[in-house]
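Reviewer 2 asked us to include a model.

Predict the structure of this chain.
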Amino acid sequence: MKRIPYLVFLALISTLCSCEKAIDLKLKDNEPKYVIEGTITNETGICTVYISQTKNFSDDNQFNGISGAIVKIENNGQTTLLNEQSTGFYTTTQINGTPGQTYKLSVDIKGKQFTASSTMPQPVPFLDLSLKREDADSIRVTPKVKYKDPLDQKNYYWFQQYLNGKIRKEYKVMNDDFTPGQEVNEYLVYHNETKNRNLDFKRGDQLMVEMHSIEAPVYTYLFTLLGAGGADNGAAPSNPISNISGGARGFFSAHTVQRKSITITDMKSK
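Predicted model (structure tokens):
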């Protein structure tokens, strides 16, 4: 499956909890800033770091990759150097992420130092993926996920959707403030506010959902990104709270991944 820089869709985040409005990311100023987006998962050899630079708002939104950075990951006293596979994209297959382990990221860009650390949470079982009709007369359906939240720990979740192999701009993050130890059934976000039915899910479409168990600082970054472009009540734009030190935007996350897929064969609710 093709991977794309997270900033492409993070800038178009659509929801937290019941809020379902797409918001474009606007920074407070136009001063160029480095953007670092790094992930390590519990899948074998999945460790990637994207490095780019912000642009003026009038510029195109193509990935503005930064080449020549020195990117390292340290875990249990062992340091691994990531290779630059293409402009701004650094990766290695030498790291196998393990729940409970802490990973430290260091990035050197022309002498500027940026660091972050992330501890991979234990996975929470992803029980089911289904579809729910919006109402009795509607042909539109909404994805619904089910999982059992553990009682003995604080948990944070990040769900992403892929339709026919392509990542969607919508994603959702949740915590267990009100659901500790409970079985959770939660709707994901699907945006089609137009009358164009071609933008709805259709019979034969393949929907895949990734469930990530993330830690609190990553949740905070994704949560604060919701308000990065300001709000309808007049709140001023602000920068999301990054877990990367040194002045860079972005985030570094060690998280688990589970997937479920469904073929949209009918529009009956479940």
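The first strand starts at residue 34 and ends at 41. The chain has two helices and 15 strands. We have added this to the supplementary material.
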